[in-house]
Design goal:
With 74 residues, this protein is of the alpha/beta class. 16% of the residues lie in helices and 26% in strands. It has a single domain, classed as Rossmann fold, CATH 3.40.50.150. The chain has helices at residues 2-6, 39-45, and strands spanning 13-17, 31-36, 52-55, 70-73. It has a 4-stranded parallel sheet, with helices on one face. The termini are close together.
């Protein structure tokens, strides 16, 4: 399911909210920003691919509106 949702986003900027350890990063073809509240999860997420990782609460994100082309959250 994730592959079908993200395959058309090759040249886009994707936000993975609550990315955890980054288990879905490999399905995202565009540039990715991963956000999670857990420092431990963000450390684990570094191993999957080069992704911009940010520690933040998903209810108080440090981004302006319409920054991302695609938002993924499981």
């Amino acid at each position: 399911m994730v592959k079908n949702l993200t395959s058309f986003q090759k040249n886009s900027l994707c936000l993975d909210l609550g990315c955890g350890a980054g288990r879905y990063f490999s399905f995202i073809e565009g540039e990715t920003v991963g956000v999670d509240l857990s420092t431990d999860m963000l450390k684990r997420a570094k191993k999957y691919k080069e992704v911009n990782l940010i520690k933040a609460d998903i209810y108080y994100l440090p981004f302006q509106k319409e920054t991302f082309d695609f938002i993924l959250s499981f």
